[in-house]
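Hi V.,

You were right to ask for the full record rather than a summary. Here it is.
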Amino acid sequence: MRQQRFYRGTSELIATRQSVRDGIDVLTTDIRGMSLADTARLLADSAIEFFSTVGTSVVCQQLSPSDVGLPPVSSSGSALTSFAAQPDTGDLAVFYVDSAPPTSHWYRYRIVAFNSRSISTTCPTSSAFAGDADVAGAAKAYVLSLDAPLAGAVRAGSPVRFVRRGRYSLYRGSDGDWYLGYRRCNAVGAVASACGAIQPLSGPYRPYSPDATQSGLVLEYFDRGGGDARSAPLSLARVDVTARAASRESLLIEGARWTPADSAKVSVAVRNRL
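Predicted structure:
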């Protein structure tokens, strides 16, 4: 029985530590690459909402005033197109033009449709953005439809980033436990109504508390001088993330109750800050 309790306690402790690592890893990756040019929408003690990059590509050719052809996810190894998540309606496409004035390097559009189509009609090999290996492998190129005509300064070869607005927060699930959750949000629209249903990512964590030394998830925001950046999101340079997890149940060890718990804290520098 002692051995069973030992292995049960070990399993609970491993699961608790995994919850902490999962939450830290997810938040670290997205916070480091957030788009401050589009600005964080919400900076709270246990929630943050911002734009993050979900894919990159280059313009292969312009198909119509508001339709753009993009290269395939290449089998030839050129990797001109790459997605962490495929863009779709509600995301933003941001085009870079090096010759534009410094204040107009990036042109931003809302995506109204994103579809795959044959290379021959979207990004032929004659464009040099697709190869014979892509044609032989029946790779599909992409058509990006925008909410407005593309600026004339955007040409073939212009880089494009796809950004998505999302919100991470500590929330209480229907089972009574607390989790790190994610809501996907529309790129435009009222903040109160633009986000979808919350989806759990990791947990359980300790319950939310206004006391930062006890809460399951604590987010702290700093500018480059170490001051509080919550009132000026564009000055954000660093986010400190603290995660505290606790097991769903207590264990009886040598006659005493013990609840496996773990915590971690990490400071994340925002790479794309102004």
